[in-house]
Amino acid sequence: MKSNTKWICIIIFLIFAGLIYVYQLWRVDIINTPLACSEDGVWELASHKIISEGSKMNYTTERLGAPIGYVTKDFMNVSYLPKLWMNIWACFTDNYILSFNLGYLSGYVLIAVITFLVLSQLGVCPEVSTISAVLYSFLPYHILRGQIHLALSFYVIVPIAVYYILKLMGNEKYSINRKSIGLWIIAMILSGMDGIYYAFFSCFFLCVAIFYNVLNKAPWKKIIGCIFSIGLICIGVLLSVIPNLIYWYENGINRSAVGRQSSEVTFYALRLAQLILPVTNHRIEFLERIKAAYNRVIIITESDWATLGLCFTVGFILLLIHAFRAHNEKEESIFTKLSVLTYCGLAYATIGGFIEIQAVIFSLIRCANRISVFIAFFACISFSIVVEKALSYFKGQKSYVIYIVLFLILCIGIYDQTPKNDSECYSTFYDSDTKAFVAEIEATDPEAMILQLPNVSFPENGMVNEMKDYAHFVGYLYSDKLRWSYGAMKGREGSVLLNNLCSLSTEEMVKQAAEIGFDGIYIDRYGYKSDEAEILESTIYEITKQEPIVSANNRYVYFSLGQYIINNNISFNQKTLSENLIKIVNGDGMYNKETNDKDEWYWCQNDSSIIIANYSNEELTVGMSFEIEVYGNQNGTINISCGDSNETIYIDGNNQKQTFNKDFYVLPGENEIVFTSDMQNISIENGQRQICFRIINEDISVEY
Q1: How far apart are CA 440 and CA 551, in angstroms?
Q2: What is the CA radius of gyration of the chain?
Q3: Is the dihedral angle over the CA atoms 221, 226, 231, 235 positive or is it negative?
Q4: Could you give the CA distance from residue 689 to residue 99 in angstroms, rounded to a whole number?
């Protein structure tokens, strides 16, 4: 134990030195500047601020997604361990940026220490284990994902999962006692709580171990152990998603929140070349040019971050070569197991691999390139064994010679694995102009609720013109009391309200925003074409007669609605809020909306329906009006029903357009209005559509 403590202290020192070098920490103010600078990293930073403000593991706040609030439980996240780790760091300081940076950077230490302990358990000497553990912690996968994919960067469970996979694989004797069983159970459950990808890949390699054991006639206890390990991992996943399951039970499943397409599987698959080629933006110009030439002929995705680095590429190639060596049937080495696992990982995750067959069944696991962190650990073990064997030839030398050789390997490895650092990226998101702009808003309208434009979906909307995804979080990150509209989960009531509100004319949007309770309107000009932003701003100015606050960098604009509300004697209007929580959805037999300069309409079949989705928590009386026009010279009836309400419209050939006005009693959730006609469908567009009538200019209002 004392020996391990000494080496762990050395690891901590080496990690600390490596972080200073890789991130140029002498040039970065980690107290006030996040290492994340864009897109997903901004969401991660906002999530951590929510923790710092007291949400802890719930990730809910009233300061986002206004007026409804911010709840992300539709976005299933099994990454319980990274959340717990970041929560721990948030307890030490109120400065969310500092705790965010420290939580991320300390992950390097934790990964290295766990890797060292696992390698030691596999019989690697402490000197080599130390060097390999530090190199594994500084994988390009870790550095390039960084705080952008914080949960994936926290791959602490991967070495532990691989250790138990190897122990449960083959004919090697594995001594079992009460203590080892307890550690195994804990390790497997935790493997299910470090992200759905690491849980899934652990189960995949356990299945490989089962197949390997069957073919090699391993003891049945090991096969049972693999099966139980998969079950324990599933328990860990289930424990992580309990809050999500409870939320879905109470609020219904939201299928709009996360969209995954099977076609994305090939896009995010692993490329073998990307494992062994140098890291993009390599420190050596010659190697940088080689990688740049390769990148020009492919579509670059996150699989570019799968690079193993020089040291682990050696281990990886040795594992590939090992499969071609002649083996004694009675001999079974760890190299054999690692080689089998590596080949199976490649067969599954590379373009054209088994991942594409899996995608036909389910596409939740789409980024197979993330298996590279497992392959990297296989290579890490291989590299460690080879280095230790090579160092055995130096037994007659003094010990400092061995230490010098290992230190050179470490330096070369770190230099090779870590790309050139662009410290200017730290300031691309956080800047003094934006901070001053938000501070001025907070001074003008303290505790205001602010409508953010352009209105964009959350999460995973993508870029809008020059505005990056999650850029709207900037207001929240810089403010202490203000409430912001961005962050309403798509498919839920907050998103429906904002979509309805922002689809109105500018004048009506401003009026209804004030009635709902918004105190101001914030505009990110990067989200518009220049002429669109100018028209929007001039229109809002004409409506409010209020000079806007403009950021010094000329990107952001804020209109206070305070004086407009006073001048027009506007107060909170529950009717306006409820109307914006109503959404019309196409039902069966109804085609998508069509428009011209004057009207908008839906073509319908003779048996069709329209859905009134009530996203409020109360039963509402909804007034609905529209015109019905029959296609072709037909006579007949159209029966319109909703629940117990029923009405029939009579159509004759001379007067085919009828006006319909009726109040419907709608419950929270989806309410179906059914149209049934005795008239015939008529085929149009070469049989592509069968239509009977159309609904023109539908309008709804809530009755109070």
Answers
A1: 9
A2: 30
A3: positive
A4: 58
338 and 276, same domain (yes or no): yes
CA distance 524 to 594: 30
Q: Which two tokens stand for residue 582?
A: 């109503």
DSSP per position, 147-204: TTTHHHH--THHHHHHHHHHHTSSS------HHHHHHHHHHHHHHTTB-HHHHHHHHH
Instruction: Say if residue 532 is in the same domain as residue 587.
Output: no
Dihedral pair phi/psi, residue 65, rounded to 5°: 65, 25
pLDDT tens for each residue of 274-327: 999 999 888 988 998 998 898 888 888 888 888 999 999 999 999 999 877 756
Closest CA to 315 of 361, 241, 380: 380
Which residue in this structure is represented by tokens 């109470």?
250
Predicted confidence at residue 424, as pLDDT, reads: 46
Q: pLDDT by residue (tens digit) across 346-390?
A: 999 888 888 888 877 777 788 889 999 999 999 999 999 999 888
- DSSP assigned state of 650: E
Q: Among 427, 523, 435, which Cα is nearest to 476's?
A: 435
Write the DSSP assignment of 372-396 as a string of letters.
Answer: HHHHHHHHHHHHHHHHHHHHGGGTT
Q: Please give the structure tokens belonging to residue 581.
A: 């929580």
Q: What type of residue is 450?
A: I
Domain span holding position 349: 259-382
CB 462 within 8 A of CB 71: no
Q: Do 369 and 469 share a domain, yes or no?
A: no
Own/partner contacts of 261-265, CB < 8 Å, gap of 24 or more, are 261/363, 261/366, 262/359, 262/360, 262/363, 262/366, 264/363, 264/366, 265/355, 265/356, 265/358, 265/359, 265/363, 265/366, 265/368
561 and 659, same domain (yes or no): no
Contact 307, 316 (CB under 8 A): no
Q: Which contacts qualify for 435-441: CB closer than 8 Å, 24 or more apart?
A: 435/478, 436/551, 436/552, 437/549, 437/550, 437/551, 437/552, 437/556, 437/558, 438/474, 438/475, 438/478, 438/479, 438/482, 439/478, 440/549, 440/558, 441/475, 441/479, 441/482, 441/520, 441/522, 441/549, 441/558
Q: Environment class of residue 579 by beta-carbon count within 10 Å: exposed (0-12), middle (13-18) or buried (19+)? A: buried
Tokens of 385: 């064994």
278 domain-assigned = yes
Let me know whether 525 and 563 are in one domain: yes
Q: How many domains does the chain have?
A: 3
Residue type, 560: S
d(CA 82, CA 59): 13
Q: Which of 619, 634, 636 is CA-nearest to residue 682?
A: 634
Residues 453 and 502 sit within 8 Å (Cβ to Cβ) = yes
